[in-house]
Predict the 3D structure of the following.
Amino acid sequence: MPSTTSAPVDSQVFRDVMGHYPTGVVVVTGRDRDGEILAMVVGTFNSVSLDPPLVSFMPMKSSRTFAKLRECSSLCINVLGGEQEDLVLTIARRWEDKLGGIDWYPSPSGDPILADSVAWIDAYVSETVEAGDHWIALCAVRDMAVANPVSPLIFFQGGYGSFVCTSLMARMDHEILPAIHAAHAARAEVENLANELGCEVAVFTDVSSDEMATVLSAAAAGARRESGLARRIPMVPPIGDTYVFDQPLETQERWINRLRDAPEEVKDIHRERLTFVRENGYLLSFLPSAGRSAYDQMRDATKRYEIGRLTPAAERSIRESIGGSPVDYKIRDLDDSSTYDVGSLVIPIRDRNGAYSMTLRLAQLPADATAAQINEWVRRARLVAAVLEKR
């Protein structure tokens, strides 16, 4: 039986233990006496009482914004949706003009209701209770409504997210049926390409802006299927560049920023790859001296992702493993006098609606390839990509 002996509580242990219990994320807004708009992100929000209707949130004692908000005659508590993580981070990082450039409309008391919030609660602070380094702000509810019934944003294990739409939700095959049909209609061409080049060839499709799925794969006699990526893979750089390169700039940056703690030079490599595939229609990666084992870390991470029902901490670990792959993703000019160990060759494919939603990926390619050989691989892969687009 685990020990439950009482001992002084370490602050990091406290965070780790309590981080396993999710809390709702809200943005509390108001106006001070001078009419200045105030906004504060709070990660601990609770329903308290039905009669009378009371809710509470817990700001830090050091919060200068709450010092102003508690003096306001009214507040609006915005319950946020799972897609509003970027909005939370924007508000939290600002010292002034918290809602500058952010869409909102007034509550019955005139305080900002953020566009796309799940719900809003028009209230006022009825009592403030001291609680260590926090306040408990007990609020009396005047009015409230559900405005956008979607999965809420929660704070869990040190991160924000809805934790529903990707790893916690099983994908239905019918969502990607057109891609499955197109890929299998070109099965003969995909298998021939794999056999003639002596490699593994896979076709992926996007399931959402967060995830891709394998819809067809083929492997030559010398290639091992078990060395490939999982059937479901998260779009974390470098995975997903053949999809986001044709998306708006903000979507591209959101994808790049999934590598949370990556240095800027690593992010710049992925920006260069987006530019290269936009201009050239393909991308290469290269193996380091470790050879194909360089993909072990990424492959194992996608296998863990495929299992599903992941906690946020597990998803962060998977993202870090994929982003930290030792495979070389730098853009290179191929030299006719040199040879290369290519890790992968990927080509974006348009679907029947003209959008880039599919990817042809070649891996486990022959080692020590010349520039001429690689250019021939690109040419052959493009022919198969064209067939996939027609189907």
